[in-house]
User: Fold these one by one.
Assistant:
Number 1:
Amino acid sequence: MQVRNILRRGLAAATMIMIGLGASAQDRFITVASTTSTEQSGLFAHLLPAFEKATGIKVRVVALGTGQALGLARRGDADVVFVHDKAAEEKFIAESYGVKRQEVMYNDFILVGPKADPAKALGRDILEGLRRVEAAKAPFVSRGDKSGTHAAELRYWKLAGVDLDARKGPWYRDTGSGMGPALNTAASMNAYILADRGTWLNFKNRGEMGIVVEGDKALFNQYGVILVNPARHTHVKQADGQKFIDWVVSKDGQQAIADYKIGGEQLFFPNAAK
Amino acid sequence: MNEISASLALALDLVAGGESRLAAIVLLSLKVSLGATLMACALGMPLGALLSVGRFPGRRVLIVLFNGLMGLPPVVVGLLVYLLLSRAGPLGQFGLLFTPTAMVIAQTVLVAPIIAALTRQVIDDEWREHREQLRSLGASRPRAARTLLWNARFALTTAALAGFGRAIAEVGAVMIVGGNIDGVTRVMTTTIALETSKGDLPLALALGVILITVVLTLNAGAYLLRQWAERRWG
């Protein structure tokens, strides 16, 4: 009896502590699973206060790679996804996890590398640039984390006709990390890396790195927004989630996206369907 | 070297500036980790004491188990608690994921074995010393466990501090179950990870300096309190 008493008292104390901690006010909020590029570029910090002001709804952003963000939403742990991998997004909809995909904005990918450019990859052609990096066996850092940027990188290698499975060597460094950590790694080993412009512009630890390839149409990076299917996950905050989607594609939301600049440079270009 | 001294200066600036966002992050860190430590003490100390004085089948297995669990990887705990609290998981209906409560739960799981194992160690010594005396008084084993816990209360602060140190320093578990949401679940360690991601290494290190200072101050406070209490009631 006494053993149980001791344990029961411990449990009771633990429960009291939990209740004490949990007793904070509940705000009206939605959870958005998004990508590290939107969070780390500072876009959300600029965008969300305007949305909150317009609607009174707080947005809680969980920033992950696109693959991970979609996985989170599949389990019902987010109300809205805001990501950038069209193929994966369409699969998400086809599997009925999401209601409808709407395009919001785009930015572009850039090939970043050492300013000395040992692979002579400088130019406007991403496929040619990658071919030269591979030919020179210059160090290349890959996200390797199933993010939107990682998916794009693999797509470019394929289009460039480089069979990674066969050519992968010590020059190709699969880091399995987010955009920022991967940039840190690339900076410290003077490697080439495919990055999104937003994260790059907001990135401080550039070392000897600069932009090597930019401006290729193929580098276009489209962001989409999707409401998680309430038919699949009944707790999804359908009305408030839809409000967020309606706002980011509205005139106000699109203007707010266009207004976000770092050092005078616009990071994201709104392109929602009218 | 330059970067490190710049970080120290930046840390001073940040503290002197008294930025309310920084204060909120530090407070949340303390709230979550102190909460988890209290929970873990409430669960782990009775358990540790019973493991010490109790004699039951499977006791040795449990002792080895708790010793081993002291080395639980935070990211595994995070993942486990995430799967439990996720909407698709068994406790999904409570909607606890991405809340400070979820972070307390994860850190409790992480810290409770440490406190249980260290408590058992402390009580073992006490038990060896007082066993005859307690027996002659006719105390049952659970009764003895309680008495010994009370006797060892000053020594047990070290166990609590070890647990707290583990909780406040880890990033893997709170990152997964908290989601590092700005203003909701962002704590010191996840902020440091985020700033490192952004490549702002001086700021990241400055935040690290602040975190270490907070932990040291708390430990110093606990030490002084213990000395004072021992003099007064010991």
Note: Chain B touches chain A at residues 31, 35, 38-39, 42-43, 45-47, 49-50, 54, 86-89, 92-93, 95, 97-101, 104, 108, 140-143, 145-146, 179-182, 184, 194, 196-201 (CB under 8 Å).
Number 2:
Amino acid sequence: MDFTRASAGPKPNTVYLFGTCLIDLLYPQAGVSTVHLLEREGVNVIFPQAQTCCGQPAWNSGYRDEALAVARAQLKLFPRPIPIIAPSASCAGMIRVHYPTLFKGEPDEASTFDVADRVYELTEFLTDILKVDLTDLGEPTTVATHSSCTARREMNVADRIDLLLDQLQNVTRIEPDNAEECCGFGGTFAIKQPEISTAMVLEKAKAIENTGAQQLIGQDCGCLMNIGGALKKQDSQISHVHIAEFLWDRTHKATP
Amino acid sequence: MTTKFRTQFAKALAQHEVRNNTESVVNKLRKHRLAAFPDQAEWISMRRHSTAIRANATSKLPQLLEQLETNLQRNGIQVHWADTTEQANQTVLNIMRFHDARFIIKGKSMVSEEMGLNDFLNTHGIECLESDLGELIIQLAAEKPSHMIVPALHKNRKQIARLFHSQFPSIPYTEDISALAQAARRFLRHHFATAPVGLTGVNFMIAETGTLCLVENEGNGRMCSTAPPVHIAVSGIEKVVECLDDVPPLLGILTRSATGQPITTYVNMISSPRKPNEKDGPTAVHLILLDNGRSRIYSDPELRDTLNCIRCGACMNHCPIYKHIGGHAYQTVIPGPIGTILEPQKNGLDSYGELTQASTLCGACQEVCPVSIPIPKIINRLRWEHIRKSSCSTPGAGSGRRKTEAIIWKIWAWNCIHPGAYNRITSVATSMRRLADRILAKISPWTAARAVPRLPDTTLHERLKALKIDNE
């Protein structure tokens, strides 16, 4: 899991957006907000409409042929030497860390190194490359954060969400107890081992409930769907929002 | 389909006392480990060093084992090779019979658990007594260890007090830990003095010098290896290291990772039986080297990393799944993340392949592993072997392949490489979201504890198209 980027690079004019299948189908506003956040920084966004999924669900389930076919279809969509932004550490990690392994020995193996080097998780890109300076326009609020395991241990960007939220004057950020522990989503794990997954998510939901926050903010929709779903099932007042949507909603002036 | 393991996991989750006991101990061990590595830079450097030592030893395994054997024999230690646990058990039995011994006192040894040694010897009329306090508790309770380092971690003080009281009626009931330890000590003392044979595990075997290194906190390992006239050590073949200089760095990171200790109370370096001019020590020392699938694991360059393990237990202490289900639910000798990769490789994916599903691939295990074993990567690899069609070295490969599941993945992949179809399906799902919600609500593994995610009215593809975002 040790990955060192070849170079951080200067601020680009144009980037690709890899929207991720989960955001596409369940949280599209997180993707739209990502576009707004990037455009506001003067970055033009390209969204190849032929994109679907990074292939991670099959890769993590052992279906390597299927994962390879799906990954290969994505690989072709990002030919220009510009950054690829994914509003998910899980999908970014798949491309950055796992594509080179998945394509090992394949004729297009070399191109995975190029793509791996260009992919960024959104909060990482906003802080490290764009160095955004945010002005909070929202009402005072308290939020709990949840960084995904891939953000923490695969992409090493778990703290970027904190750096961004701490720029917002009216936002109090609380890290729940056992923040570094997995929420129990794990993709197909939640379906294959639902009993363990439930035990894990209930513990996580309780820790978040204990923060007394109004909202739960994360950079990965898989975790948010899992924890948010458990909170909702328990009639919790805590809603869950992707970091992109939260940042955009609080920092842009609504057009009259 | 509810499988053998899932049923067991569900049962384990219903055992609240065990869960509380397990959680309370792993939380303590996590804290102790964290305090033992106060400096992140130092941890990284120690870990890099240990990783290199173990990787080096594993890469030279065949040569180092030959060198080890030569040097052990030169030192007077008798070496026995065992391909299988049956052979290893038989060797112990032969040694017992040679010395006409009917009783064996044991220090902690996970390899003897792997062999099922106690049961085997019992059927041959030989009595075994565990002398590690945790192992003794497990033996008195007729259970199996639930952790590599802390075998009785699933039991709390009150349970142990009741157990001791029922097993040693002469001792008054007490929940005082040191009184309980004293009771065990008094009980064991006599057996140390009279046992004809002592058996221990091994932490490291040093090829260069022909030395066996054994660490422990209770002194029972030293008693087992010095007081009885015969000492039998059992070890997996992977525990060999190249030279004496390799041991201090490994010990330092092993004990810190395991219990947060900078060093254990006892560090035993066993280099020979009693020499002619010496007054104590065993007159015969045997080492049984167990393969049991390890050389097959060695033959695969990716899976080989599994053998680098130094058995510290940090992976299980930091695993959220182990914390919730405890060690017994794994139904293996070694539980937790390392057991999840080791046991299916040793015993076959056909019977243990499902264990590879008991992971969210969160990476907490790899993060704390003192020798950087890429456990999630190996789990991923084994999941592939479990369902793949072509054969490979791991026994039971392909046994997990289910037709329906394979077809679902095929359809999924076809859909994902045909964006037209993909977009039509996601678009239909969102436009008919009321119906879709009702269907989603029926996915009971998800909805038992979670609300159904509400589908939006349009997909991201549609929204960005409407916003006229560039397509290429």
Note: DSSP finds 13 helices and eight strands in chain A.
